[in-house]
Amino acid sequence: MELKRETKRRTEWSVIVSEKAKSTVNPIRMVVETLKLEPNPEKPLIPLSIGDPTIFGNLKPCEEITNAIIASTQSYKNNGYFAAAGSEEARQAVALYSSVDGAPVEAKDVILTSGCSHALDLCMTVLTNPGSNILVPRPGFSLYETLSALIDVQIRHYELLPHKNWEIDLNDLDSKIDGNTAAIIYNNPSNPCGSVFSRQHIIDFLAVAQKHFVPIIADEIYEDLVFPGNHFYPIASLTSEIPVLSCGGTTKKFLIPGWRMGWILIHDKHSRFGNQVF
Ligand SMILES: Cc1ncc(COP(=O)(O)O)c(C=O)c1O
């Protein structure tokens, strides 16, 4: 017997907005894009806006970058479709740029994305199922929570310690991990704290991830942007055991956020991700 499901036909417009769309909020964009301020003439304005290094026009990208884009578009050779992960040449260039002692990168380990936001989106999506949880820093970049709503993943915060230069509270982190923890999101240098982790602190953090066998999604978009006296250590260069997806791009360091050029570097010396992740 054929079962026919009767649905009432619509008689007027009533477009449904998904529950996911309704629960997806980007608090930074909500504030910044609707901000209308009457400056107080008595006081100088201190702009505390988003991390866009081009806003004041005093920091310009170097000529090599702009010339390369002009040459590329004028060559008419790069206007077609590329492989989903990016052209071999571009992946090779990122691999060459990103390889460091202890964390070599080959073109096959590079996935090109639309900005670091897209890199984070892909990493969170590929490592989670509904019911998984992901650990994120507090204070932290709000996009992690925005993205989690789309994939039905529980966000758990681990605390950063203001009196210790915003280092990670490793005991707190340790206590929040369980068998459903799909990944720890780690952000260094940090937005919004401006902190840069020492080599030792990164090693101590890695020990917690290792104890629980949890992979790391490293948001390293601010790589090398450190105050004098600090040094940026790519986290993957300090572990050979823990699989790391490092998210980065040209946004901040190369002063071109609008170009939306990001990447994922897959560091997985023991193939713990298998061949299913990317
Ligand atoms: C910590 C952090 N991660 C990721 C991003 C997103 O970078 P993109 O503009 O390349 O998507 C930002 C942008 O401000 C950021 O501050």
From TrEMBL:
Give the Gene Ontology MF terms in alphabetical order.
L-tyrosine-2-oxoglutarate transaminase activity; pyridoxal phosphate binding
Keyword list (alphabetical) reads: Aminotransferase, Pyridoxal phosphate, Transferase
> Domain of life of the organism in this record?
Eukaryota
Q: Does the keyword Transferase apply?
A: yes
Pfam families of this UniProt entry? Answer: Aminotran_1_2
Task: Tell me where the signal peptide lies.
Answer: none
GO BP term (any one):
L-tyrosine catabolic process
Keyword Metal-binding annotated: no
Q: Which InterPro entries match?
A: Aminotransferase_I/II_large, NHTrfase_class1_PyrdxlP-BS, PyrdxlP-dep_Trfase, PyrdxlP-dep_Trfase_major, PyrdxlP-dep_Trfase_small, TyrNic_aminoTrfase
Q: Which cofactor does it need?
A: pyridoxal 5'-phosphate
Domain Aminotransferase class I/classII large span(s) in chain numbering: 44-268
Family indicated by similarity: Belongs to the class-I pyridoxal-phosphate-dependent aminotransferase family.
Name it.
Answer: Aminotransferase class I/classII large domain-containing protein
- The species this protein belongs to is Oppiella nova
Upper taxonomic lineage:
Eukaryota, Metazoa, Ecdysozoa, Arthropoda, Chelicerata
